[in-house]
């Protein structure tokens, strides 16, 4: 679910996040970037890919909270926060966009100590399927892995 992306001249972490439909915090998190660390031309970043396959985009309305959005779209608020690089108590701003998981996939956020076998067991899928569906599996804490529901 990730691709490698090389930063071009004139790009910022904000412009890259917008281009890939994710939050700046999420990009910083998956690339282990400090809060104010800048990106420079030629640097390789990990970016989300095929968001349209696994996610839909939701524009935050006034009064929205992660809990309200999760309830409205029948998803887990903790998963919703993790997918968008947010903490549960983070404020979300009207007009911002977040990614919502599509309903026909199961999602798992990797943790320290996970193995491809343990994740496969959670999804009840073999290793070959997981690699095909996710293409690149780093097994670093915080990676989102998906599996088509039965």
Descriptive report:
With 150 residues, this protein is α+β, with helices and mostly antiparallel strands. It has three domains: 1-49, Membrane-bound Lytic Murein Transglycosylase D, Chain A; 50-103, LysM domain (Membrane-bound Lytic Murein Transglycosylase D, Chain A, Roll), CATH 3.10.350.10; 105-148, LysM domain (Membrane-bound Lytic Murein Transglycosylase D, Chain A), CATH 3.10.350. The chain is 32% helix and 20% strand. It contains seven helices and six strands; from the N terminus they run E-H-H-E-H-E-H-H-E-E-H-H-E. The chain has helices at residues 13-19, 24-30, 51-54, 66-72, 77-83, 116-123, 127-134, and strands at residues 2-6, 44-48, 55-59, 97-101, 105-109, 144-148. Strands 1-2 form a two-stranded antiparallel ribbon. It has a two-stranded antiparallel sheet with strand order 3-4. Helix 1 crosses helix 2 and helix 4 packs across helix 5 (77-83). The protein is globular. The model has no long low-confidence stretch (mean pLDDT 87).
């Amino acid at each position: 679910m990730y691709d490698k992306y090389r930063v071009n001249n004139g790009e910022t972490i904000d412009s890259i996040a917008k281009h890939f439909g994710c939050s700046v915090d999420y990009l910083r998190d998956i690339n282990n970037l400090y809060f104010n660390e800048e990106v420079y031309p030629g640097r390789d970043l990990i970016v989300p890919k095929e968001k349209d396959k696994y996610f839909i985009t939701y524009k935050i309305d006034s009064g929205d909270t992660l809990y309200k959005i999760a309830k409205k779209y029948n998803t887990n608020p903790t998963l919703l926060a993790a997918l968008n690089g947010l903490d549960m108590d983070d404020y979300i701003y009207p007009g911002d966009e977040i990614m919502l998981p599509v309903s026909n996939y199961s999602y798992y956020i990797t943790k320290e100590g996970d193995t491809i076998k343990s994740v496969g067991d959670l999804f009840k899928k073999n290793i070959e399927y997981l690699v095909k569906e996710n293409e690149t599996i780093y097994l670093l804490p915080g990676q989102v892995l998906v599996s088509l529901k039965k």
